[in-house]
Every structure is written in C-alpha cells, then in structure tokens.
Amino acid sequence: MIFFIDTANLNEIKEAYNLGILDGVTTNPTLMAKEGITGSNNILKHYVDICNIVDGYVSAEVNATDYKGMIAEAEILSELHQNIVVKIPMTADGIKAIKYLSNKEIKTNCTLIFSAGQALLAAKAGATFVSPFVGRLDDIQADGLQLIAQIRLIFDNYGFETQILAASIRTPMHIIQCAEIGADVVTVPLSVILGLIKHPLTDKGLEQFTADYNKGNKQ
Ligand code: E4P
User: Is the pTM of this model over 0.85?
Assistant: First the structure.
C-alpha cells in the first residue's frame, strides 16, 4: 500500500519521510493557504521545496477551472519536477484536460471524486490517480468507504490501471479499512499516520519490560 502525506507543511513532510514509510505528498489550495503560501510564484517554489524532501509523487493542483487554463497550468506544474502529478478537478473540462495530459504522458490526479461514475470517467480519460474523498462523504452521512469498494470493483472488472488514492482520510481506522478494500494509495495527515503507531497495550507492555530490565540490572 502506498502512503502519501496530506499536507503542505514542510516539517510534517520531513517528519513522515524520516519515518521511512512515505511514498509521496498531496496538497490542495486550502492546505497551501493554511501554511501561508500564497501567490503563484511562492506556490510553485513550495512545490519544488516539497519535491526536494520526498523521493515520490507530489500532487500539485491547478487553480483554473476552464480547459485551456488547466492545460496551461498543468504544463507549468509538470515542468517543475519529474515527480509532480497534476491535480485536476472532476468537471467536464477537467476530464478533457486529463485526456489531453494523459496523451502527453503527464501524470494526473483527478480530485473531488464523490461517486463511482466520476471515478469511471476519470479512469477512462487516462487519469493516473483518482481521489475519492472518504471523510467528506462521511461528513454528510454517506459512506466514503463504500465508494472506495465500488471503485475497486469497477476498476478490477475492466483492468483500469488508474490507481485509487483514498483522500480525506480522518482516522487510523479509515486507513485499515482502505487497506482491507484494496485502495492503492491513502493520503493522510501526519497525526493520523502517527495514530497507527499507538496502542495502550504496547505502551503498557513496554513500561513493564523496561521496569523488569531495570530490576535485573540492580541485582
Ligand atoms: C487530498 O488530495 C485532498 O485534497 C484532501 O485529502 C482533502 O481532505 P479534507 O477533506 O480533510 O480537506
């Protein structure tokens, strides 16, 4: 299973990378703004800074919503670094842009996927990744994980090579359930990645082992 971190915070990216389990990064305009990164030049520079930390795919999102604007931005983004994957929103113009970029062998991540039909069209257009938003569906009392399972079935039925990138992951259990379903990738905030490590019985057991080791050393 491929692990991406879902942040534009360089320290968090370094921390996850230093754990040795990080395969890439996803960002979006909201995550960039959260880090105070605004203005196109600063944003482009920040993508390069991220690529210089992580040896893996880095999703960089277009801000244009029309076909021509998306293509123009995608070409600039893809030339920043070989690991850039251009994030394109799920719209009719987005689908056309994904098809165009796929023909040019530019990698794409179709974002804001909330239905199986959207994922199917993005895969048909040649997207490298589709990003279904698990948490945001759960937020409106729909079933985000059910969508991951539906897309897995459809992609397997037809042998689509498009990878399912489970996004909007909120809890360690989301990660485990995505792994059970067979999502190819999860993109996760650092706190949720670290949440996978924690277990009260691990803490208790370690405390006991340390205490017993220290007893032996005192004899
Ligand atoms: C990543 O590609 C998505 O933009 C991100 O996972 C969305 O997460 P959120 O729903 O927590 O904002």
Answer: yes
